[in-house]
Amino acid sequence: MTLDWWRNPCQPLDPIARGKAQSRQDQLTKPRGALGQLEELAITLASQQGRERPCIDRPWFAVFAGDHGVVEEGVSAYPQAVTGEMLRNFVRGGAAISVLAKTLGATLELVDLGTALPLEPLPGVLHLHVGAGTANFAREPAMTAAQCLIALQAGRASVERALASGADLYVGGEMGIGNTTTASALACALLGLPATALAGPGTGLDDQGVTHKIQVIEHALALHRDGCDSPQETLRRLGGFEVAALTGAYLGCAQLGLPALVDGFICSVAALCAVRLNPACREWLLFSHRSAEPGHVAVLEALEARPLLDLGLRLGEGSGAAIALPLLRLACELHDGMATFAEAAVSDRPV
Ligand SMILES: Cc1cc2ncn([C@H]3O[C@H](COP(=O)(O)O)[C@@H](O)[C@H]3O)c2cc1C
Ligand SMILES: O=C(O)c1cccnc1
């Protein structure tokens, strides 16, 4: 594979499956359009999965973890040690995403890209050792070019494993103390917006904390402004290991033909990076929810995304996408199981 594999073409959606699914929706026993966003969801999934009747039988969850050097600026309400501690919690089954994956019958893959504090090998976790967290981007680029490439590739490799196991939907998640600062800085640079438009409390900063976070991000944006001359370089300078891995995963999904359900603010910023690196990947992305993190609105707008849920979630880990997954399943069940007007002998014409 070439170093800039992400520029390779994405899979086209299947127009025949889309047409058949659209016409099936129009024949089901309900006023046309009455199932709202669930109708479009079923039709989109049909065009992505290349079958008139899509299904979500084998969802694949992958949580990418990594630490952030910018945490030394005091931008998170929680200590950096939590990233590694939560990895242990994922393994033991005590984290929100562990419970959700188990309840939904999903495979949960855990990828540790590099924590600041040393971590013992954990059963079932893929430890990739990209670095002991990223460098502090308020002082220098977060990643070397090699680290950024390895992280992007780690995301793509996760999608390859998902497909090899027969997955029909990909859900990415993240764990990394400080990553709302990273995501905000990245989104500011990609969208040309000031930090005030995107930075929020993350895990729970107070107003004073958010003001400080904004100052740190503005300082970093000024430091890297001239260097951020491409999406790839912006990701390298202001990103994080897990954000780059998610970016690579979304690109991999589009290139290999697996629909991806995007979680909250952090994942949406990774999706924005993916779309800037290869715009054609957009049509493989489904958006699950609007996070309580205030910057999410601007990122969703830039992606022209209309998420399914707005529950005030601000957790990450892929949890919001997992919570939206039953809606995707219900959209598929309705699409598959409802009778047509002809089958049910119901008059199909409004008077
Ligand atoms: C116990 C705990 C579990 C989490 N699971 C996800 N996050 C979320 O919060 C972090 C980002 O917020 P900030 O930028 O404010 O540090 C990320 O790790 C994200 O996944 C968690 C945070 C904590 C504290
Ligand atoms: O929406 C998110 O992804 C999010 C929000 C706050 C903290 N961690 C993640």
Give the tags.
single chain; 351 residues; alpha/beta; 5,6-Dimethylbenzimidazole Phosphoribosyltransferase, Chain: A, domain 1; Rossmann fold; 2 domains; six-stranded parallel β-sheet; 48% helix; globular; binds alpha-ribazole-5'-phosphate; binds nicotinic acid; transferase; Nict_dMeBzImd_PRibTrfase; glycosyltransferase; nicotinate-nucleotide-dimethylbenzimidazole phosphoribosyltransferase activity; cobalamin biosynthesis
Distance between the termini: 59 Å
The top-level CATH class of the largest domain is: Alpha Beta
User: Which term fits the overall shape?
Assistant: globular
What is the gyration radius calculated from CA atoms?
20 Å
Corresponding CATH superfamily of the largest domain = Nicotinate-nucleotide-dimethylbenzimidazole phosphoribosyltransferase (CobT), large domain
The largest β sheet comes out as: 6 strands, parallel
| Oligomeric category | single chain
- CATH architecture call of the largest domain: 3-Layer(aba) Sandwich
Order of helices and strands: HHEHHEEHEHHHHHEHEHHH
- Compute the number of structural domains: 2
Helix content: 40-55%
Number of strands: 6
Question: Which secondary-structure class do the elements indicate?
Answer: alpha/beta
**Largest sheet strand order:** 3-2-1-4-5-6
The tally of helices reads 14
Strand content: 5-15%
Say what the CATH topology of the largest domain is: Rossmann fold
Function: Catalyzes the synthesis of alpha-ribazole-5'-phosphate from nicotinate mononucleotide (NAMN) and 5,6-dimethylbenzimidazole (DMB).
Keywords: Cobalamin biosynthesis, Glycosyltransferase, Transferase
EC number: 2.4.2.21
Organism: Metapseudomonas resinovorans NBRC 106553
